[in-house]
Structure formats: C-alpha cells, structure tokens
Amino acid sequence: MRVSRNSKYIIPYLEKFYEVTSYYSYSLIRFVAGAMMVPHGYSKLFVNLNGTADFFKSVQLEPAYPLAIYVGILEFFGGIFLALGFLTRFVAIQLIGLLAVATFYIHLKNGFLWIKGGYEYPLFWLVIMIAIFFKGGDRVSIDNSLPKEF
C-alpha cells in the first residue's frame, strides 16, 4: 500500500481504512439508536404496560393507557424500523416528539445530570433523532432501495 506524504491523517497508513469505514458510520449510528429504543418499547408493551400507564397518569399524560400503548409500539417497532432504515424520517419525527416530552416535561425539573433524574440522556437522544430525521435512511437502509422515501 502506498501512503501519501501529504496525508491529513496522523497515522497515514489508516487512510484507506478511514475511507472504507466512513461509508458505514452514519448507518451504524442510526442502527444503534434504533436498536437502543427496542428494549424500552419491549418493556412498556410486553412487561409493564399497566405500570407505564400508571406513570403517565401520575404525570398527567392522558389518555394514559392508549398513550402507553402508542409509546411502547413506537419505541419497539419504530426502533426496529429505525435500525433497518425503514420509514426513517416518519419514525424519527415521532421519536422527536416523544423525546421532547421526556426531556422538557418529565426530566427538565430534575436538572441536567441523568444520574439525578435529569434531562441529559433524553436530550442526547433527542438531538440524535433530530439528526436522523434530517439525514433520513441514507445509503445502507431499506429506504434507499424504495422508489420514494416516505
């Protein structure tokens, strides 16, 4: 392998590696963001739906039970769709709404630090979902193979 003396990289021998792997970097972020939603939705839908509804009721999010079902479906199935890059923007905009509520309505009053119940973690995921919404499915996605993006 021939390495250019004018490489912008500190380790010029990794230039080809960086070029090849950068193609997949956004898809990796989108996949992980979606995959990390799935256990949250699974827990709400299949483990503790009544507890989720009770929590929503306790913070005045009504109608609590249908909302708990919607959030569970969005996190579980939407997470899978996001990971696969299917209906990416459609799912991401809904997750933006969900995470905005989590950030500003549920956690803001607890301050910044997540370990104290603060908004740090949901704000991070909100920003990630905003970026995913703007970027869409991109190259390595089901959306990319469809004739039109939804």
Task: Give structural notes.
Helix 1 packs across helix 2 (49-58), helix 3 (64-84) crosses helix 4 and helix 4 (88-107) packs antiparallel against helix 5. The protein contains six helices and no strands. The protein has helices spanning 15-47, 49-58, 64-84, 88-107, 120-135, 142-145. The chain has 150 residues and is an all-alpha fold. It has one domain (26-139). The longest helix has 33 residues, at 15-47. The N and C termini lie far apart (43 Å). The mean pLDDT is 93.
End-to-end separation in angstroms reads 43 Å
Backbone CA Rg: 19 Å
The helicity comes to 55-70%
* Topology order in helix (H) and strand (E) letters: HHHHHH
Number of domains: 1
Mean pLDDT: 93
Secondary-structure content class: mainly alpha
- Beta-strand percent range: under 5%
Total beta strand runs: 0
Largest sheet: none
Low-confidence stretches: none
Per DSSP, the total helix count is 6
Shape: globular
Characteristic terms for this protein:
150 residues, mainly alpha, globular
Please write out the topology.
Layout: H1 15-47, H2 49-58, H3 64-84, H4 88-107, H5 120-135, H6 142-145
Helix pairs in contact: 1-2, 1-3, 2-3, 3-4, 4-5
Describe what is shown at a glance.
With about 150 residues, the protein is mostly helical. The protein has helices at about 15-45, 50-60, 65-85, 90-105, 120-135, 140-145.
